[in-house]
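Q: Structure tokens for this one, please.
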Amino acid sequence: VRMEAERQAAAAAALGEATELIERVSTEAEKASAAAAQALRASAGQASDKNARQKAFEGVEQTVRGVQDSLTALASAKESVSQTKASASGQNLAQLQRLISKVSSLESRCRQQAKALDAARRKLAAEAEQAVAEALRVHCRKFNVEAGALFKQLSKAGPVVPVAQLQSLLESNGDLQATELDLGFKRHAQGVSRFALVEMVQDYRKCVKELVLTTSFEVKSGSVLRKLELGEIVEILGEHGRDPSAGLERARGRALRDSTEGWVTLRGNQGTAFFEPTAKPYLWCHGGSAVPLKAACEMQSKTVTTVLVGDVLEVLEGPKAEPPIEVRRVRGRAKKDGKTGWVTLQERADTEPSLKQASFLQCRAGIALTADFSLEADVIRKLEVGELLEALGESREEEERKVTRIRVRAEADGKEGWATSKGSEGTVYIAESTAHYVCCSEVPIERSLPSKSGLVRQCEVGEVFEVLEGPVIDSTPGAMLVRCRVLHSSEEGWAAAGASGLAQWVPRLRCARRSDLRASASASASEGVVRPLEEGEIVEALSTPMLQSGTEALCIQVRAEHDGTVGFVSAFAGEAGSSSSEDGPILQPIQRADGS
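A: Here is the predicted structure, written as tokens:
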């Protein structure tokens, strides 16, 4: 009896302690829950007021911490009650079960509010970042300065622009208050990289609905410049507003494909979005064959410069097709073996012709080949219709019979002699051939009119080719090119969009496998390690890829997203000039949610 009494007393004491713990934690959780609801209302009601946005954000931040603390305390209390439950029975057990249910309910509510608070926090931060970006765009338009030039001016050759300088710049313009700037630059507290600054200043959108580019702000008064295709990228140039007559949100933009400028509809009168945000497009040279930049949108134009391994290119226009490539083709027969097919007379206007007109004479009617000029001279043989002859001198007129004679050599057997080229009645027996050509360079005889339609054989230099048909124009679509600017040199030109040495460049990267973050680009394998870079870590590129000193490997200066550590990391485990190593690239691009 005494032992039973002691057990019941211990159970009652444990129940009392558990009840007190639950009540205390529940009270704190209820307060956190109420604060969360208030913070959410404040964030929703004040998000459009930039003067109140910072205060709302701070309230959400503080409440998030309170809710998280409550979740931790609730989990601990739940564990404590569960342990007490193991030794309880009867009425005590039922009471403990009710306590656990209460904790679970509060825990579920706090989790939901934590999720909502996190969404509110992200929304407020995004709105502040958008306000900062718009202020930077206004500044650049006002002073006619490009984002790259602004970065160069403020970074003073460093990898980032200190946030304080950008805040000072925008404060002096009177666009935003200090609290708004603090919130807008919160994600870039350790400095703004070139790529991040460009993304803030240049507003790129991807077309998600069919629409047109027009000449004026008001839809009814403008004419159509051209249709925009799904997926086309447009740079918004700043001027925007609501067309009062149509209720559409309109903005002036530039189509990246061909640089056509005009007005586009961002959002319909029912709120339908016609565009979604997208990343500014970049390319980079990862190796392989050299990539020339051309002076014009034609592969045969002058080469401006050659893109080197590691160079990053800012895409300014395109992809755009060069003019169709047109070549003159003829169908004919090779004299050597009678093979027939199509050949190209000349590949391009700036190259030597593949074939040139041969200086042959051709027998148009049967005529005798004689030993000398006289018509009574001995006959060597008869010349057949179609035979090719080589002139061995100028033609002469036989005055008595009024015929024209010429000394020739027969191509078929090399026989030489005199033949009548024109009779007394004007009959032409021998005339210049316009159908025979000589190969100036090795040229393929192909099966049909389109180039690369199947090889019959190669026609060698010096071979005679008889034209049977043509010339005929063979037109093929031109290559797709993009107009680019090399970031480190600012040189501009056109590059083949499908060049094997070019790939998309994205400044936000994920570490595919563990690597070292080094203090410099020349650090050896055992020296200069700042810290390990773990698999899955996200980094922001602060530089373009460069050759690591003393090696053939590419490296990039990056900043780790979670702690801001700056250092250099190998872009690839292999050598420069190959897009991957045996284990694949160490850094992999992170695509945006919109797929860009």
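A few notes: Residues 358 and 401 are 31 Å apart (CA to CA). Residues 573-581 have pLDDT under 50 and may be disordered.
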